[in-house]
Structure formats: C-alpha cells, structure tokens
C-alpha cells in the first residue's frame, strides 16, 4: 500500500514552492525528461496532436523561469501572490513507466496587478519514487473551465 500521507506532503511542498514562488527549487522536483501540461479540453487525448494551453518540457520550463525572474520582466512590475489548496488526493496505481499516478483537486488563488483570480483544477502527477520522496515525470493540470477563454497565466499553477 502506498503511503498517502507521504504523497500529500510532497504535493504540499510543491504547492509551497509555487506559492512563494521559488521556480528554481520547483523545477528540481521534475525528472530530466519531466513535462508539464495544461490541456485546452477536459478529455484531451494528448498534448502532441492537439492544441494545449501549454505543454512544457524542461527546456521550456527553464525559458519561462528565466523570463519570470529576469529583473526587467513585466512580471516584476507587480508582486504575485498565490495560495494553493489541495484535496481529494488519490492514487490509481502505476503507469507503463512504473510511475505512481496521483490525482488531486486543487483550488488556486492568484493575486496579480490588483486582481484576484480563482482557478479550480484537476491535477494528475506521475511520480517517480526517489529515496524518501518523489520526482515529477509528468504533471497535467486541467482547469475545470479549460474550454473558456483564459487571460494569460503569470505563474505556473
């Protein structure tokens, strides 16, 4: 039986890195072949043959991280604050790579440029056991209103 408490702690630690935001340490949670995907439709089959809100590999995550932390980045004009609330954490076995598949619901509040936005999400993590913790091989964040028009996302959810 998988230790659900250990998985929850990992998800809470990841959320804390995104809330701060500490993208350097957050990226360290991913494997070298790690991906982060936000589909444009609830039942989207894959990120390769269909349009997505984004589908980032490590290179693209690094580009976004550099753009976010750059001293002249527009994101620096206004402070960003986030708050993740995580619930309904479930495991559903392993995938073909042997990764533990974990699903959760997350509510994310983002305050940026004097506006607070609320994101409801269904999140799927593919976790590779790594000593006493995990590494993320794949993260899929499906907005519950993914088909609706979206403003630009300033930070990762």
Helices and strands in order:
Layout: H1 4-19, H2 23-27, E1 30-39, E2 52-56, H3 58-69, E3 81-94, E4 100-112, E5 115-130, E6 133-143
Parallel strand pairs: 1-6
Antiparallel strand pairs: 1-2, 3-4, 4-5, 5-6
Structure summarized in a few sentences:
This protein is an alpha+beta fold and 157 residues long. The chain has helices at 4-19, 23-27, 58-69; strands at 30-39, 52-56, 81-94, 100-112, 115-130, 133-143. Helix content is 21%, strand content 44%.
Describe the structure.
The longest helix has 16 residues, at 4-19. The protein has helices spanning 4-19, 23-27, 58-69; strands spanning 30-39, 52-56, 81-94, 100-112, 115-130, 133-143. The chain is α+β, with helices and mostly antiparallel strands and 157 residues long. Helices cover 21% and strands 44% of the residues. The protein has one domain: Nuclear Transport Factor 2, Chain: A, CATH 3.10.450.50.
Which whole number gives the mean pLDDT? Answer: 91
Q: In total, how many domains does the architecture comprise?
A: 1
Helical amount among residues, as a percent range?
A: 10-25%
User: Helical element count?
Assistant: 3
Strand order of the largest sheet: 2-1-6-5-4-3
CATH class annotation: Alpha Beta
Shape: globular
Indicate the radius of gyration in whole angstroms. Answer: 15 Å
Biggest sheet, in brief? 6 strands, mixed
Q: Which blocks of ≥5 consecutive residues have pLDDT under 50?
A: none
- Multimeric state: single chain
The fold-level CATH name is Nuclear Transport Factor 2, Chain: A
Q: Which percent range describes the beta-strand content? A: 35-45%
Number of strands: 6
Q: Architecture in CATH?
A: Roll
- End-to-end Cα distance, whole Å, is 29 Å
SSE order:
HHEEHEEEE
> What structural category do the secondary elements indicate?
alpha+beta
